[in-house]
TrEMBL record:
One of its GO terms (molecular function) is asparagine synthase (glutamine-hydrolyzing) activity. It comes from Gossypium australe. This is Asparagine synthetase [glutamine-hydrolyzing]. One of its GO terms (cellular component) is cytosol. GO terms for biological process: asparagine biosynthetic process; response to stress.
Length: 582
């Protein structure tokens, strides 16, 4: 995962400005296997490269034949070979998958973006008229920000830290959009059927869903560097690992790096989820790497996590910390790319609170809302926690074609119905329930997401809360609304994170990039309306969802929970490769 920084229409074309742009670019800890700066008049394009495809010759910027079109890009274009065939009369300078972008622009103008199948953020400069186009991938898997300087310049950066000190105003670049200097504004290029939130009616076909996800995983095996999978032992990461292991042997990657898959997991010592990950790894025959951390290790990393993830959202920071620690370990082994399981819960309604969806229409609309917000939560965590150490995360559940298939299913099939034996994400589980050629053991395939077991994370969360309580006083909380009028922290843990964030990013624009609002068990604010009791007991971690689990499963459900523990429990979020012990 690379880092890009562009300053377009700058009034200063001095050597000092070049040095400043390059210095800001290097704040983005993304690799680098190569870094560089291109200048054309008052426009600067800088890049920090993490080379995954064509490491030898794919350095940036990328050009068309006469170098009149210049591109700096962060991402992976999975259908680049197919696109090259459509551009057969063009001459390509490198083997980079992103080399197609400049040539597509020559052929199709600004309307080519929807032809790209992959994850990307790019800046394209047309030197013939000094116009430029900026675009971000459909869901926002890659991070991107846009800012404006007092001198009229437009700034583009993969991270906040690349532009927050130099722009008068900046904001998150909306996913699925492009910004054109010719029109002077944003335009949404990604317009799938589900985006309107109209209720679909396609009957559920498990084989169609299975094939779509297998395609999403296998296309992400495109790599010229060592890679692996993040494996927590939960459903999503286990399916990703199973499909990767099943199809790896016939790929170019296997010929280069061997056909035995490597898997990675991190957790507090003794965590039951570490045991689950080992069980899946043994079943699939992966080379499994298990990393341990302590609560103190996590606390010590909090400031670095907030600096790199660029958020003060509580649940994002809690989940990012072990992933951040694991990524450093993985990179130290020489691995540069991992495949992960983010996005499944948003698409299939896997979170605890979906038990309370009043009907299929509202169930579907909530999944749409969750997918649209992913770039502010799980995508931001997965992208930045890994790229901080020069590691790239690929997320097949967020494949454009797979989302189209999954979101076209009549949501009645996704509804959770205990009397029919349908638990969360039943349609996904059923799609991979193959008796003849099993993908996973049955007890893993049908393992329930919200296991209130000893492994869900009491000591990690409680350790964070205790640490925050030592640094945030009651008096500070009493005045929180005056100190932080926007997204006012309501807990000492949230106040603690906010103080650190504001120290790194003190601008008002920075605090506005972080989402807020009412939430229960990771819901959107709209879903809080599903249960009147939630409105008085809001907690984004899920602790407020008392009764959701109890009403969804009867006493015969083999979950081994203690009623006295339920209020203090956190439902398992299945962060891929992350296992946390109580």
């Amino acid at each position: 995962m690379c880092g890009i920084l562009a300053v377009l229409g700058c009034s200063d074309d001095s050597q000092a400005k070049r040095v400043r742009v390059l210095e800001l670019s290097r704040r983005q800890h993304r690799g680098p296997d190569w870094s560089g700066l291109y200048q054309h008049g008052d426009c600067y394009l800088a890049h920090q490269r993490l080379a995954i495809i064509d490491p030898a010759s794919g350095d940036q910027p990328l050009f068309n034949e006469d170098k009149s079109i210049v591109v700096t890009v962060n991402g992976e274009i999975y259908n680049h070979e197919e696109l090259r065939k459509k551009l057969a009369h063009h001459k390509f300078r490198t083997g980079s998958d992103c080399d197609v972008i400049a040539h597509l622009y020559e052929e199709y103008g600004e309307d080519f973006v929807d032809m790209l199948d992959g994850i990307f953020s790019f800046v394209l400069l047309d030197t013939r008229d000094n116009s430029f186009v900026v675009a971000r991938d459909a869901i926002g898997v890659t991070s991107l920000y846009i800012g404006w300087g007092l001198d009229g310049s437009v700034w583009i950066s993969s991270e906040l830290k690349g532009l927050n000190d130099d722009c008068e105003h900046f904001e998150s670049f909306p996913p699925g959009h492009l910004y054109s200097s010719k029109s002077g504004g944003f335009r949404r290029w990604y317009n799938p059927p589900w985006f309107s939130e109209a209720i679909p009616s396609v009957p559920y076909d498990p084989l169609v869903l299975r094939r779509a996800f297998e395609n999403a995983v296998t296309k992400r095996l495109m790599t010229d560097v060592p890679f692996g999978v993040l494996l927590s032992g939960g459903l999503d990461s286990s399916l990703v690992a199973s499909i990767t292991a099943r199809y790896l042997a016939g790929t170019k990657a296997a010929k280069q790096w061997g056909a035995q898959l490597h898997s990675f997991c991190v957790g507090l010592e003794g965590s039951p989820d570490l045991k689950a990950a080992r069980e899946v790894a043994d079943y699939l025959g992966t080379v499994h790497h298990e990393f341990h951390f302590t609560v103190q290790d996590g606390i010590d990393a909090i400031e670095d996590v907030i600096y790199h993830i660029e958020t003060y959202d509580v649940t994002t920071i809690r989940a990012s910390t072990p992933m951040f620690l694991m990524s450093r370990k993985i990179k130290s082994l020489g691995v540069k790319m991992v495949i992960s399981g983010e996005g499944s819960d948003e698409i299939f309604g896997g979170y605890l609170y979906f038990h309370k969806a009043p009907d299929k229409d509202e169930f579907h609309r909530e999944t749409c809302r969750k997918i649209k917000a992913l770039h502010q939560y799980d995508c931001q965590r997965a992208n930045k926690a890994t790229s901080a150490w020069g590691l790239e995360a690929r997320v097949p559940f967020l494949d454009k074609e797979f989302i189209n298939v999954a979101m076209s299913i009549d949501p009645e099939a996704k509804m959770i119905k205990k009397d029919e034996g349908r638990i969360e994400k039943w349609v996904l589980r059923r799609a991979f329930d193959d008796e003849e050629h099993p993908y996973l053991p049955k007890h893993i395939l049908y393992r329930q997401k919200e296991q209130f077991s000893d492994g869900v994370g009491y000591s990690w969360i409680d350790g964070l809360k205790a640490h925050a309580a030592r640094h945030v006083t009651d008096k500070m909380m009493f005045n929180a609304s005056f100190i932080f009028p926007h997204n006012t922290p309501t807990t000492k843990e949230a106040y603690y994170y906010r103080m650190i964030f504001e120290r790194f990013f003190p601008q008002n624009s920075a605090r506005l990039t972080v989402p807020g609002g009412a939430s229960v068990a990771c819901s959107t604010a709209k879903a809080v309306e599903w249960d009147a009791a939630w409105k008085n007991n809001l907690d984004p971690s899920g602790r407020a969802a008392l009764g959701v689990h109890l009403s969804a499963y009867d006493a015969e459900t083999p979950l081994s929970i203690k009623p006295s523990k339920v209020i203090d429990s956190i439902p398992r979020m299945d962060f891929p490769g992350v296992a946390i012990q109580s």
